[in-house]
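Give me the fold.
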Amino acid sequence: MTPSNWKLTRDADGEPQAEEWGGEGPRFGTNLMGAAEIQARLELTKGEFNGLGADESFPEPLSTLHSGRVWLTEDIEAWIATHRPDQASIPH
């Protein structure tokens, strides 16, 4: 099975897990967001985004790569729905 047949989610305990992709929803890679994607989604400057690091409610990154931190899109969207509901309905 190739990586494109898997997607990342969280289990009942909130731990990241890979699930086989059944053809619906995002596939592996399409459900991750880096800083640039989050900045664009929230219409933030780089400085404003960096300020989110001081907000204890902001999700922890899934991982840190050489290119930077990455988050699960579902974690970011859940945070937006709770902490920035006026931006939750903005198409992305």
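The mean pLDDT is 82.
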